[in-house]
What does this fold into?
Amino acid sequence: MSMDVHHLAGRPVIIGGGIAGLTTALHLAPEPVLLLSRSPLGADASSAWAQGGLAASLGADDDPALHLADTLAAGDGLCNAQAARRIVYAAPAAIEDLARLGVRFDRTPAGALRLGLEAAHSRRRIVHAGGDGSGWEVMRALVAAVRSTPTIEVIEGVEARRLVVEDGRVTGVLASCSTGPAFLATGRVVLATGGIGGLFLDSTNPMGSCGQGLALAARAGAVLADLEFIQFHPTALDGPRRPMPLISEAVRGEGAALVDETGRRFLDGVRGAELAPRDVVARAVWKHLADGHRVFLDVRERPGAAFAQNFPTIASACSKVGIDPARDLIPIRPAQHYHMGGVAVDLGGRTSVPGLWACGEVASTGLHGANRLASNSLTEAVVCARWVAESVAASPYDGGKPTLAHDLPAQDPKLVRPLLSRGLGVMRDGEGLKETARALLPLLQGHGAASDPAAVGLMITIAALLRQESRGAHFRTDFPHHAAVARRSQITLDAAIAAARELASSPTLESVF
It folds into this structure.
C-alpha cells in the first residue's frame, strides 16, 4: 500500500527534521511546505545533541570582524571569505530570531546573554541554552513553532530514497514509509539531512546520520565540495557507548586540562594548548594515544565544583559509566564529529542541480574551510535557513510528470564503517586511501544496502587522495605540509567512480590522477 500524497503535490519538500530543516520551513511560512523526517521530530537529529551552542559577536568587547578573523584562521586558507563574512555578520540577528521563537538562552542575573569561550575564539561569544543542552533547547522551541504553524505539513517515519531528475532538474522525491513507497511531485527540494557520523565506528553523532543527503544529491548529479575535511572532536568520552558521548569544548573553555596517565599536561608545548584549533588538539591526542599513553580530561580544579551544574548532560554521561568528574579523571579520545564538506551551494542554498537546495551540515557554503570554528555550525544553519527559504520561495513550481512510486532498498552502513574508520581517520596516507577506494567500489556497484554509504565514502576517499597536502582537519602523513596554493575541492559521483575504476587496475596514484 502506498502513502496517499497526491494532495501535497507541488509543495516545497524539506528532507530532514533538524535545526536547518525546521528553520527553513518556518521561514517559508505562510507558503505550504512538506517536511519529511525519518523519526519523530527531534528524536534522532544531530542538532538536538549539540552541546556547544551558537557563535555570534554579542559581547561589548566583540565585533563581527573579530568573529570573521577567527573563522578564517581556523579554516586554514580554505574558507569562502565572502560567504563567511555574510554569515558571521548576520549571526547576532539570528540569535534574536531564536529568542523570539522561545529559545531560553542562558542569561546573567542582569538578563544579558551569558557568553562562553571555546577553542580558537578570541572572545567569549558562544551563546548557550541549558548549559550543555543548547541543541536540545533550540530544537524544543523550533519543534513547538513548527507544530503550531498550520502551513507546515510534517510527515514522520518517512525516508527519502531518491530524487527524480528529468531534463536536468528535480521533479520529485521517491520515499519509503511503513505503508509502502511514495512519489512526492515537487520541483523544489531542500536537503537538511545532517552529517556522516554513522559512517564511522567512533562518532559523537546519531548512528543514523549516514550521509543520506550527500547520496541523494550525488545520485542526482550534483557537485559536492571539500568532502575530505572531516572534523574529529578531540574529547569524546572513551568507553563502550556508541555513539560516543561528547565532552564539549566549552569544558576546556572553562579551564579543564588534558593530561595523561602520569598527570602530565602534554599539550603545554602546543600553541594555544587546550584551546588550540580542534584539528591540532585531535592530532596531539591521537598521537599520544598511539604512543601508548592514555588521555584524560581533568575538571577537578576548573570548572571544579560547578561542573555538574554547568554541564549536566556531560555529568550524566560520566555518571552512567561510574565516573564522578569532581573526583575522577575523564578518559577521552577523538571521534568523528562534523563534516565541513557537503553539497556545493551558494548562499541561497542553490546546488548545481536546478530545483535542489541544501542547508546545514549537508551543505558546503565555504564558511568552515578546512576546519570548522567551534559553534559556527548551528549559527550557519540558522542564518542560512532564512536565505534558503527566500530562494525557494522565489522559485515557483512549474509542474512535473507523475512517476510511479517504487521501493528502493534501505541503506545500511555496517560494511562501510570499518573501511572509513581505518582509511579516513585523524591521520591518513595514500596507500590506506587507495586500499579504501578499492574496497568501496564493489560495495557501491552491488546496488545493495551498502551502495549509498559506499558512494559517499568513495567520494570522500577520492577527494582525500586528490588533496596531496595537509591542511586543517585533513592530515596526510605522506604529504605533511601545506601545498603552495590553497584550493577548495569539487567532485561528482561519476568522477569518483571513474577514478576508483582506474585505481582498481592501476598500481600507482600518478597513473590515475
Q: What stands out?
A: Residues 6-195+340-393 form a domain with the FAD/NAD(P)-binding domain fold (CATH 3.50.50.60). The CA atoms of residues 502 and 512 lie 6 Å apart.
